[in-house]
């Protein structure tokens, strides 16, 4: 798979089939993840793959409770995504959140069916500088294998319980960064079209100075003709 195809079409998949992911596929996903750049090559990460049905059932109950906590925060305007980013239409933001909640409801309702949960832990991670490249590498590798997934952090609302359930040696400094729900998607891959264009979210040399190029449409898949708007401006 072309690297740009992977970059443009890897998106959060919350509607997943229950079909198991073969161990050799899981190995390729994690082997790609551990090749990710990390500070000083210290590799302060650990991955816990969960596929035991009983454990998944216990985690499912916890996930639904954690998600209720998250949406309670959202309803009171205190959640991390409660307020739209500067320049984003509030109505459009509300519609995006509505769609995400809908697909998230499916994930929560069918949590026990998710074939693989991948919990990601790190030590002294400097805000995620080391672990998030590894997580993104895992998702890109999964895309190449036809496996979809979503990264979620809602279980950090019950971090102590998760640590106990998974036997995490917290005394060594390990902290949960995220959980990936992985499986073969029910939906289709495609380029995310609902993104603000480059020129609206980028500047050159100084905040709010024009970036200098307009990108009216996604640049992948490549077009025979260069889009008219992709030219130096200003």
Automatic annotation (TrEMBL):
Q: Which domain of life is it from?
A: Bacteria
> Would the keyword Flavoprotein be found if you checked this record's keyword annotation?
yes
Domain annotation Nitroreductase: ranges: 10-184
A molecular function (GO) held by this record is: oxidoreductase activity
User: Which SUPFAM superfamilies has this protein been placed in?
Assistant: FMN-dependent nitroreductase-like (SSF55469)
- Keywords in alphabetical order, please: Flavoprotein, FMN, Oxidoreductase
User: Which InterPro entries does the entry mention?
Assistant: Nitroreductase (IPR029479), Nitroreductase-like (IPR000415), Nitroreductase/BluB (IPR050627)
Pfam families membership:
Nitroreductase
Instruction: Name the chain's protein.
Output: Nitroreductase
Q: What is the lineage of its organism?
A: Bacteria, Bacillati, Actinomycetota, Actinomycetes, Mycobacteriales
